[in-house]
Amino acid sequence: MKPIKEVIIIGAGPIGLAAAARLLEKGIRPTIIEKGDTAGAAMLQWGHVSLFTPWSYMLDEAVVNLLTEHGWPGVDANVTPTGREVVEHYLQPAAKLPELAEHIRYGTEVFGVSKAGISKHTTQGRDSARFVVHCRNELGIQVLHTDAVIDASGTWSSPNPLGLDGLPVPGELANQQSVYYGIPDILGTQRSDFARKRNLVVGAGHSAMNIALDLLKLQAAEPGTEVIWGMRKNNIDKLLGKGINDKVPARRQLGLAAKEAIERGALKLISQLEIKEIVRAGHGLNICALAGGADIGIEVDNIIVATGFRPDLEMLRELRLDLDHVVEAPTRLAPLIDPNLHSCGSVRAHGVDELSHDDAHFYIAGMKSYGRAPTFLMLTGYEQVRSIVESLAGNAEAARSSQLKFPGAPKAQQGACCG
């Protein structure tokens, strides 16, 4: 196998920049392709949200080393930042360093990855062929060649729809002006969209909790704001879940706050909600649904969909991937993170072995590597790319020697799982 000299990284988020910094340490040239106009562009879309973990969980050693060489003032490791603070105080300063800046192409979107001159169904010559990456920007279509590819593009741009079957419910796409995905800035730039409106939040995870609690704060300041929280499953016990909540106290505190709001009647909860159809009625929406198997109707102005994300695999369809058909994560990683098997959010350290595909030297890292599983932690992604880069540099032993450590966690709890 020829030595790896060039690697294309898709995405200039925290995992993509960490991968680039690691590659530079090994003398391998990275090229980072970023769809947005700045590092961390996707994070800025939820920049108003406070993370669950402090700065000590946000930082990659290789990136910090580069920043420190240029006089970076650092951050308080014990303070919990917002998404915007991570971008402005860590990612953007790193991306502007001369070592990294020359390797980043902004405003450029990757729409296809393949083997040069070889489609997915062709085997002969495949292993020796370089990768080809097709991307587009304001200058048009560009075709880049490289020895390896690390897809760290995340999942933010691919939210799950409302349907329990994984598909949009009738009327969802037709009423997009009143349907919001992800975590809108309810108390900030999008305040007027939700104030004095009837708002339905759909989802059973921590994002839905965050949204519901923000709406309650808005309700206190703007009487007439209505808040309904719909869980598609009977997941009320998840509010006080175990595993990751024990290690990340902010998540547990969020659950307690939501539970208290439900108990005092400030937050209306509908469990086992299955939306069947959305119909426009004047300036609002009529929702035909089932709740616990019984027909109900809900009249709202807005629906906020916080039902998780899925990986966009369309640009990778010409590659030979090894993906689990349930979680859409790499096959060897999937059993460690499958929410059908694990009630906690913990996962043992993993790296190049769990992330490899049939086309050698192609990797999905970071949030996207978890497929449809929702429990990714930044430190896990940093360990992923450390292992991948060691392997690309020919250091098999280092690639398979775990260096993942959670700050402040006893050794016995590192990677502990519900089993």
Could you explain how this protein is built, in words?
- Helices cover 26% and strands 20% of the residues.
- With 419 residues, the protein is of the alpha/beta class.
- It has two domains: 6-157 and 309-413, 3-Layer(bba) Sandwich (FAD/NAD(P)-binding domain), CATH 3.50.50; 176-305, FAD/NAD(P)-binding domain, CATH 3.50.50.
- The strands form four sheets. Strands 3-2-1-7-16 form a five-stranded parallel sheet, covered by helices on one side. It has a five-stranded parallel sheet with strand order 8-15-9-10-11, with helices on one face.
- It is globular and about 65 Å long.
- The model is unreliable at 242-246 (pLDDT under 50).
The appropriate CATH architecture of the largest domain is: 3-Layer(bba) Sandwich
Mean pLDDT score: 91
The total beta strand count reads 16
Residues in helices, as a percent range: 25-40%
Q: For this structure, what is the CATH homologous superfamily of the largest domain? A: FAD/NAD(P)-binding domain
Question: Could you say which structural class the secondary elements and strand pairing correspond to?
Answer: alpha/beta
